[in-house]
Write a structure and sequence with these properties.
Rossmann fold, six-stranded mixed sheet, alpha/beta, 20 helices, single chain, 603 residues
């Protein structure tokens, strides 16, 4: 079964669950209204001498049922939200699996500067960005991990370890969904170290000390006991009202003291806990990949796993969320001083485990980044991992390599060989024949290899050199920069990197210097070719200048010509997008103008 069919079935299943839980939520809402009415009626009868017992029983039963329904409603509403979010995430996966990247709802794209050496040229940004197929992470720090892996190739053993981790996680769709749910439902996308520092730095309120806590427990016990004895056992003369009013007063005083402590936690604690809420699942997984095993070891503190501790933190946050319901907040504190009890538990948790959170969170962000890569592998099954080559030589051997963002029924794959450093391949071809797409195909597959992902090829053996491109150049009205000068600045950036000689460089240059006249373009391009070969750089240059092909005769050991060719049948032009050896001697610009109906006499 194709991935798209699997995803469609899951979307339909979660849609049915969402509709069913909606009906339950409506019933619970109606029940809460009746409970509230029962509390009012029971309370009024409780002060009637003839029906004190019955009224109190009805009021307390109404309160208990109201609180139960409140908890039940929150759980049902959360389940509904989970279903809706899962549908949203699955619809994004469906768009990825069917190559509709423009329809992917992107959760904050990874940012790249305008002068990035390859991001814009290889379509990592924009409405149809390739990264939409790869990056489904939520947190900014997980996205930064992905960017680091893209920009700075790790040692081969690190990338191979990442390949194993991606392969291990690819089949664990349930875990990856729960990880995504935890992040999207409860966390903050830009969760940073300052969030942790601010929460850990808040001073513990004195009211949560042992003596005030015991005093509060005694007061709550006396108040509740007097109310029960008065209304259920008809014991007269007990100061239940005075104790209740005293407890309410104490609660409001404590609430003003607790405010900063509890609000800082409510703003940050849930995000911190939710960021790690899938850790217990991760810890229970029997992982095979060494990198995942190392991450699990990083979550062990004093011989104990982090998962149960973080679950306790999330449970404390869930208990304290009732504060948003004013009626429940008043009742629970008026009867039990609820806040003091749970805030003391929270303070104890923070004192014991708070300093471990930064290390735990760092592990989680890497798991999230690896999960995004694993999702890519799951969406496009059957693609092989590349064979990575160590050393300073540029090596690229590809069989049936295609662009991963082009649908399979439209994708054309080519074999390609770059055997060593210091080689230049000149690619000629008529307009629309596929030259630029071929450059991007090579570039994006090298990036997939860097990330530790399968590549879009039957086989790929490659090294991981620095990647520099000049394919899509834009002028800037705001900066007063012409197209030609923008291209010159990009070429300077590339040549500076090559001249620095800090490792092998692989370049992809498309129609360079086309913003100037043909004579000067030819002179500059020939000089540039000489520079590239002298510095042992390797890469591809596409061109329309047939005169430039003559440079191959000057250095046939290092320069090779390839081309793309169109064919014409019945005055229609067809492209096979196949890379062919040798020079292209024909052009199609005038033919295209005639076919487009340009009203000129073109001879």
């Amino acid at each position: 079964m194709q991935r798209s069919q699997t995803i469609e079935r899951r979307i339909a299943a979660y849609g049915r669950k969402r509709d069913r839980i909606n009906r339950i939520i409506n019933l619970i809402a109606t029940g809460r209204v009746f409970c509230f009415i029962a509390i009012l009626l029971g309370g009024s009868f409780a002060f009637d001498g003839d029906y004190t017992y019955q009224g109190a029983a009805i009021a307390l039963a109404g309160i208990g049922l109201f609180l139960f329904l409140m908890v039940r409603h929150d759980r049902c509403y959360r389940f509904k939200t989970r279903c809706e979010l899962l549908i949203e995430l699955l619809e994004a996966d469906l768009a990825r699996a069917t190559y509709r990247l423009g329809d992917v709802t992107y959760n904050r794209p990874i940012p790249f500067p305008d002068d990035h050496p390859f991001a814009a040229d290889l379509d990592l940004t924009g409405p149809n960005a390739l990264l939409k197929a790869i990056d489904n992470s939520f947190h900014a720090r997980a996205k930064q991990k992905l960017r680091d892996w893209l920009e700075n190739p790790d040692p081969l053993e690190v990338i191979e370890a990442r390949q194993q981790a991606v392969n291990d996680l690819a089949g664990r769709k349930g875990f990856r969904q729960k990880l995504a749910l935890a992040a999207h439902l409860d966390s903050k996308a830009d969760l940073a170290s300052t969030d942790l520092d601010n929460w850990l730095a808040v001073k513990r309120p004195w009211t949560l000390g042992l003596v005030p806590y015991i005093a509060g427990r005694i007061l709550a016990l006396l108040t509740t006991t007097c109310i029960v004895l008065t209304f259920f056992f008809r014991v007269e003369g007990l100061p239940w009202l005075a104790l209740f009013l005293l407890q309410i007063t104490v609660f409001y005083i404590m609430d003003s003291i607790h405010k900063r402590f509890v609000m800082t936690f409510m703003e940050r604690g849930k995000a911190i806990a939710a960021t790690c809420s899938a850790i217990s699942l991760f810890e229970r997984m029997r992982v095979n990949a060494p990198r995942l095993a190392a991450l699990k070891e990083g979550l062990v503190t004093e011989g104990k796993s982090a998962g149960p501790h973080l679950k306790k933190l999330l449970d404390l946050h869930a208990v304290l969320e009732y504060r948003s319901n004013g009626f429940a907040h008043f009742l629970l504190n008026g009867l039990f001083l609820w806040d003091q009890h749970y805030l003391r538990s929270l303070a104890g948790w923070r004192d014991r485990y708070g300093q471990n959170i930064p290390a735990w969170v760092t592990c989680v962000f890497e798991v999230e980044a690896l999960s995004a890569l694993a999702n890519f592998q799951w969406l496009y099954p059957g693609r092989p991992f590349p064979e990575l080559v160590e050393g300073d030589a540029v090596v690229l051997e590809a069989e049936a390599m295609g662009h991963p963002a082009i649908a399979e029924d439209k994708r054309v794959c080519n074999d390609y060989l770059m055997p060593a450093s210091g080689k230049l391949h000149l690619i000629t071809g008529s307009n629309m024949s596929g030259k630029s797409t071929f450059l991007r195909t090579i570039g994006v597959n090298l990036l997939l290899a860097r990330l530790g992902l399968p590549v879009c090829a039957e086989r790929l053996r490659c090294s991981l050199p620095k990647l520099m491109t000049s394919i899509r150049i834009a002028d800037s009205l705001a900066e007063g920069v012409s197209y030609f000068y923008a291209e010159v600045r990009r070429i300077k950036q590339i040549l500076d990197v090559i001249q620095a000689d800090e490792g092998p460089v692989f370049y992809l240059l498309d129609e360079i210097l086309k913003g100037t006249n043909s004579r000067e373009r030819l002179i500059a391009t020939k000089t540039m070719v000489t520079f590239l070969l002298q510095h042992n750089a390797s890469g591809l240059i596409t061109t329309h200048d047939l005169e430039l092909l003559a440079v191959q005769e000057q250095d046939p050991n290092h320069i090779t010509n390839y081309h793309f060719q169109e064919s014409v049948r019945d005055d229609e032009m067809f492209f096979d997008y196949r890379l062919k050896p040798g020079k292209l001697t024909s052009t199609n610009a005038l033919r295209l103008m005639k076919m487009a109906g340009v009203p000129l006499e073109l001879n």
